[in-house]
Amino acid sequence: MDTWSGAEEPEEATPSSNCPICNGASFVHPLLASGKPDFSRVVACRCVQEELDKERQARLQQYSGLAKLHRTMTFDNFDLKRANLLPEQRENLEEVYRLARDFAKSPDGWVVLQGVNGCGKTHLAAAIANESLQAGKPALFVVVPDFLDHLRSTFSPESGVSYDQLFESVKNTPLLILDDFGEQSTTPWAQEKLYQVINYRYNARLATVITTCCSLDEIENRISSRLVDPKISLVFPIIAPDYRSDRRSSQSAKRYRRGKKDSQS
Length: 265
Ligand SMILES: [Zn+2]
Prior knowledge:
The chain is an alpha/beta fold and 265 residues long. 42% of the residues lie in helices and 13% in strands. It contains 10 helices and 8 strands. The protein is globular, with a radius of gyration of 24 Å.
């Protein structure tokens, strides 16, 4: 909107403010069709809206579950130019990068990112969450082993707890990242609670990103059958090796491709 700040009314400015549009007044006069300021009206300055957006982003980030490290993981700093990748690995990495970027723009359905530790799947998943928060939309980043620990202590048969805020948030958030999904050893009731989350989100078609270094037949059948449902889910195997192997020779990159066990830490 075209506006005019009334800069010659310095009594309205807060000295601490450095907004060049309103000089700290927080509001501006909209411009009339003639191009002159309409002194009979005031509207909030753009800086107020930006401040509110920033506050909202900070609040969303605070509740996102993103650890400090994960907050720094964006699409911009994802390394597509890794050394010693075979051509097909590079192509595969570029493809999953594009897929994750597109998904982040309008999260819809499920994406399963599968690959060895260090292949980049967690970085991409965190980048999706960060992009959503940046746009002022909520996202929840959950490290599955930690979440199972939480469930185990919260919902033990002795605890008698039937309601848990984190559990409800994970179930209902419009965008959920389940990082490091695997064959965790946990209690049957924690496993059951995790299944409830998956099943609820599956039925409600809520956008979900899952990263795992397991093959799908290593995952409990009730869950894996949902992960592979093409109506809702896209499974993307990342064939890039552990980035920590990049410093070694390309010969060893080939070896890593053959035996993913070697590259897992
Ligand atoms: Zn302003």
